[in-house]
Amino acid sequence: MDYGVTKQGFKRPSFNEIREETINRVREIMGPINTGPESLIGQQINAQVERESLIWEAMEAIYLSQYPESSAGRSLEGAVQLMGLSRRGATRSFVSVVLKGDPGMVVPEESEASTVDGDVFSLIEDVLLDGEGVGEGQMRALRAGAVLALAGTLVNIETPISGWDSVENPDDGEVGREIESDPELRQRWQESLQVWGSGTVPAIRARLLQSVDGVTSVKIIENRSSEVDADGRAPHSFEAIVSGGADQEIAEMLWDVKPAGIETHGINEVVVEDSEGEPHIICFSRASLVYVWVKVEVEEYGLGVPIGAAELIKEKIVEYGLENFGVGDKVLYQALFTPVYANVSGIKSVSVRLAGNYLPEVTPPDEVFIAGNIEVASNEASAWTVDRVEVAII
Q1: Does residue 295 belong to any structural domain of this protein?
Q2: Measuring CA to CA, which residue among 356, 377, 384 is closest to residue 239?
Q3: Hey, how many other C-beta atoms are within 10 angstroms of the C-beta on 102?
Q4: 215 falls within a domain
């Protein structure tokens, strides 16, 4: 049998195949000698075979490292560079804040405040307090990654300034992301295969996801007919429903990739300039948020679940929801068993119930929670935070 690089890929001999071939060669030279594992010759053969087997394994790993589907770590980064991709680093969370203090004072850039969990945020720009002593601004987390700033939790002033009395965030912050994992980079590489096209729905979606920083989810809806559709889209137009990213960058990318003569549709209107400096209006929509509430009941067995299991389950459910349910994706309640069983031991059984609403601060009553899916419209996206996940361990 041929080994090494073949038409079917890389073929590596097994340890036993190498050993059998080596024994046959030795017997051709030395005759019918004892090659059992207890013999001196047998031990020498096994040592040689083990070394050769490790060399074959190393050669196979080198071969596989060329391809995104089979490489990992630095090798994966090298493989996807052929498509112009690089691993995305961690980004920092942003949050809108309301500052209060003496009227007319300025809270300077880089002033710091922290959440009740101790995560520190820094003011992006100077904030001037108005005649009522109130000003609005944005803060950015000092630490990169998925740093949460749930509504009402950013309340501690870390940079004491005379005249600055309080800070608060009325709404949840925009959560940053951790450094891109191998599976995420591999999936982005697969999606990027569509990037080289333009004008098609997969190509437009891929360009927005790959080339516009901060875009996390995209859905493209076309109206190919010669009539206005039920949602008001003009004939031969399309609507991009986008989560994340800056409006101007999204609009400029849509201008670059949309087919000539095809109109864009959506609530957001942004002016972009073509190569001649002429203005054009590009439209797209932001996804309306369906806030997902989750109730999980875990029954233990044996020694039970580890300490901190409830918090871990909350984090993993939110992580799974953010990664797997995008714009227009129905929330499948059975899928949420996966992050529980995959990350916590000592579980006998799990039950999951879901509820969804459009009011992030209003907890649904218990009777509306169901062991079923949450329907999400084509222009909606599910929103996930740990404070909307309740875990009971029994």
Answers
A1: yes
A2: 377
A3: 11
A4: yes
Q: How much is the CA Rg of the chain, to the nearest whole Å?
A: 29
- Domain enclosing residue 41, as ranges: 4-64
In 3D space, the residue among 116, 101, 110, 170 whose CA is nearest the CA of residue 147 turns out to be 116
For residues 209 and 260, state if they share a domain: yes
Residue type, 8: Q
pLDDT along the chain (394 residues), means of 10: 77 87 86 82 87 88 77 79 75 90 94 94 93 93 88 93 94 84 80 59 82 83 88 90 88 88 90 88 91 94 88 92 88 92 90 92 92 90 92 93
Q: Are residues 282 and 293 in the same domain?
A: no
In this structure, the answer to whether residues 240 and 323 fall within a common structural domain is no
Co-location of 121 and 201 in the same domain: no
pTM of the shown model: 0.49
Q: Locate 280 and state its tokens.
A: 């054009």
Cα–Cα distance list, 273 to 112, 203, 252, 254, 285 (Å):
38, 22, 8, 12, 20
Q: What are phi and psi of 197, to 5 degrees?
A: -85, 175
Structural domain includes residue 74: no
Instruction: Provide the token pair at 381.
Output: 């996206």
Q: Are 135 and 94 in contact (CB under 8 A)?
A: no
Whether residues 300 and 388 share a domain: the answer is yes
The per-residue b/e assignment along 181-219, b for 16 or more CB within 10 angstroms, e otherwise, is: eeeebbebbeebebbeeeeebebbbbbbbbbbebbbbbb
Q: Both tokens of residue 369?
A: 């929670």
Same-domain pairing of 295 and 384: yes
Q: Within 10 Å of residue 27's Cβ, how many Cβ atoms? A: 13
Name the β-bridge partners of 271. Answer: 281
How many domains does one find in the chain? 4
